[in-house]
Specification:
Number of strands: 0
Largest sheet: none
Distance between the termini: 22 Å
Radius of gyration: 17 Å
Helix content: over 70%
Number of helices: 8
Structural class: mainly alpha
Order of helices and strands: HHHHHHHH
Strand content: under 5%
Length: 239
């Protein structure tokens, strides 16, 4: 595996662990982290992933409509995952629903695996696209770590079990990267994969992260989101 990809895999691992580790101490600053991640994910979807997907699709004669349908279906799929595995159980207190902690955290581990696959797939296109996607994933993995710990603790899971799920979540991107860098993927599959990640990133940014900032009226939240957008604009312009 390329050394650069290994570095990003390690960065994603650390980002996830750090997110989970500091959630309690820095909880009051979470809206700013959420806003920054939302801005960067939405920007990278429109400024990098979608254009690359459309370009690849054009080179292998895949209709633009198929790419856009993939984006919509991916968005819908992640809305279902969050609706039925991540959000509906929050606030439930009966013992039967304690299992939703591991189920929700497990779905985040799967999502982190797909994040790693996004990095691996992007680097197969070129290093510039890989760098953009890797940075977006690293920012998002920080919130993945936060969400994993939150879901486990809200459902009364033991701290040791919570840490175990956090470590699995941190390792998942590396496994995803390994899967996509060791398997030959055609340009047509890459085009559809990138489109799927557009839908995923748009949902996470607009529907999952941004709502977490609504109760914070500080201008800093707006600045944090604008910073995330501006950073991706710079990276897509000069890299």
């Amino acid at each position: 595996m390329d050394r650069l990809i290994l570095i990003f895999a390690l960065a994603a691992f650390i980002s996830t662990l750090v997110g989970g580790a500091i959630i309690v101490k820095f909880r009051k600053y979470l809206p700013f982290f959420f806003a920054f991640a939302a801005g960067s994910l939405i920007a990278v979807s429109f400024l990098d992933l979608l254009p690359e997907s459309l370009e690849l699709a054009g080179s292998v004669n895949i209709p633009v409509r198929y790419v856009m349908i993939t984006v919509v279906l991916s968005f819908f799929l992640y809305s279902l995952i969050e609706r039925f595995l991540l959000t509906h159980h929050i606030g439930d207190h009966d013992d039967h629903n304690h299992i939703m902690g591991p189920i929700g955290a497990g779905s985040l581990i799967l999502h982190s695996f797909l994040d790693g696959a996004a990095i691996g797939a992007a680097f197969r296109i070129n290093a510039s696209v890989g760098l953009i996607v890797a940075l977006a994933v690293i920012f998002h993995d920080f919130t993945d770590g936060i969400n994993t710990v939150t879901l486990m603790l809200k459902n009364k899971q033991h701290i040791k079990r919570t840490i175990t799920f956090l470590v699995f979540d941190a390792l998942a991107p590396f496994v995803g990267i390994l899967a996509t860098t060791t398997i030959n993927i055609s340009e047509s599959v890459l085009a559809i994969m990138l489109a799927a990640f557009v839908g995923e990133f748009l949902y996470i940014g607009a529907s999952t992260l941004l709502p977490e900032t609504r109760n914070n009226l500080s201008k800093g939240v707006v600045i944090a989101m604008a910073t995330g957008i501006f950073l991706i604009m710079l990276l897509t312009s000069f890299i």
